[in-house]
Structures are given as C-alpha cells and as structure tokens.
Amino acid sequence: THCDSLPAPWRGPPTALETAPDSGIRLYPNPARDHLILQLAARHLPAELELWDSQGRLVYQQPLTELQTRVDVSALAGGLYVGKISSSQGLVVRPKIVLNR
What we know:
0% of the residues lie in helices and 43% in strands. The chain is mostly beta strands. It has one domain (21-99): Immunoglobulin-like, CATH 2.60.40.3080. The radius of gyration is 15 Å and the shape is globular.
C-alpha cells in the first residue's frame, strides 16, 4: 500500500516551556501575547537573546544579565519566531516562539 505518513508516538500534552528542563533555561509563556519571561541559571550569565522572524530578519536583540528577564515583544507582529539564546558558557538554544495577536 501507499503510505504518505508514519505514526509518531504521542508524548503527552505540549508545555509552555520551550527549552529542556536540564538546560538551565526556561522561556514562557509560549504562545505569548506581549511579553516573555526568560529564566537562566547563573552559570549561563551573561547571555544574549535574539529573535528572528520567518523571513530570517533579526528583529530583536537584548543582553541578558539577570536570572529572570521580562522580554517585551508587544512591538512585534504576531507569528512564528526563532529565538537564539547564547550563553557565556557557549550554550546556544534556539527555541521556536509563537506570538498571538
């Protein structure tokens, strides 16, 4: 028979956390409306956050120097963004972020 798709195991409900729990980085809520909360373990500071839109344009950049940072995304259009969190220890995390408008 012809098969266009393969079944994938269900892994439970989605969470608002976009990073692995053991990475020391948490980003929520996701989807977001006007802000994100980014929590970093002290070992990752200082760090930097970048947000890239679906066209590959860098639309937001912010240094991260606190364990918890409120990121104002109210000026960005709704849609899908790719984040890049670069830590001082060389860790790079690329969460997908959805902004609902």
